[in-house]
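Quick one: structure for this chain?
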Amino acid sequence: MVWRCFECGDSYDDRPAFCAGCGSTGSAYQLGRRARAEIDGALEIASAADLVSQANHVGQLPGCPGVMVGGQALVVLAGPPGSGKSSLATRIIDGTPGPVMLVSVEEAPGPSLGQRLARLGVRRADFGVIGWGDADQVATVLRQRRCVAVAIDSVQVAHWHARELRHLLAVLPSLRLVVAVSQVNKRGEIAGTNELLHEADVALEVEDLQARLVKSRFQEVTNGSVVLPVLPPVLPRDEVRREGATVRKLHVVRNAPVSSGDEPHRDAPLPEPASPTDCG
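Got it. Here's what it folds into:
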């Protein structure tokens, strides 16, 4: 398997500790596609009424005030390493009522991930976490648990392409939201391909613990029209410092609103889908 630095494009036979070409760390991703899975061959079928209903059922994206989303949507969070993408993805699915799943490929399930979940106030029994697994294993768990939302962190490391993410929404009847975490280079370009941005229903650029809406099929987007903090506004001040240090690798935390409180804000539920046909 070939590894490529998404900062400068240098290639390596093995995953490098740092890029010899540009000196960046944590910037290498594997080229190629994942192995074909059984779910890839599942038939996508829906009625016109279902599709129109999904497009018309618009509500607020959990954890993202001012950002609207429709039924069965693909949301992309793109940003450089340490910008807060994983924390925002966690908040979005944690604010979604019903069983949810975090596919955490970059950060394996363990104490570090547990500490981040605790800082963000994630305590739900129906918030599941998958580490490494193939596409069929992930799809099987999502179907068995009737998950309504899934976040994949990151799609480059997990080898999920844009059309495959859309396919999940089409063949898993309970799934209403897929959140795709994507790496970008210093120029702000999505690592590997821009196909993901093209396929996205909603796209947010994440940097310095803030997210900016850059694309939406559910509302008008103007430059700087929607900017929101990555961390919950009720996170205690010492927790903001800890989360900022973890997410941004000890960089200075800027513009992170803080307040007091015990529990993170729980957003309104996502719009319900219009009973899609079970084709899984």
